[in-house]
Amino acid sequence: MNETAIVKIEEHRNEKVVCFTVDCVDPENEAWGRMSKWCKTYVPDRTARRYVGVALSGHHPQGVEHQNASEHIKHPYKAMMYLIGDECGQKEFCGLKVEDAPLGLFLTNDVILNQFDIALSMMKASEAFVEFIKNTPDYEFDCSAGIFYEEHIFSERWFENGGVPDGFRMWVPIVRTKVNED
How far apart are CA 71 and CA 39, in angstroms? Predict the structure, then answer.
């Protein structure tokens, strides 16, 4: 297993999602639990889909620093499943409103999950983003977006039992500050 986070640039445009948005204590568990239940009913190819979540006002909207993964803080969270093909042209998909997916340029990397402290895993992955931006003058963080996205990779085991995702990637919005003119 690779212990070093590999940073990639991805561009996302014209994609559609369906969402479960909640605002409660432990919102990630609530939103992904709803997504799992819905997917088991309506999405037979659920393990092949892309799932992305976002804490709409950050995981700590009151500005309190993160202490550990067992914290229970109330905040809004949106769990999204990306649609494919003709599903994107519909206003509703299996009873859920079709919405625009996050768009723009993103730095992404795989997060090596420490199942006992996922937040620590995410902080380590964030260091790779900062290093990339420091060493790549043509890009900078898109601070106006102000948030990062979490891509969850789920197997059938997760849909049946819940728990830690089978894989995890972080997305951070960026902007290109210089275009090569060659």
Answer: 27
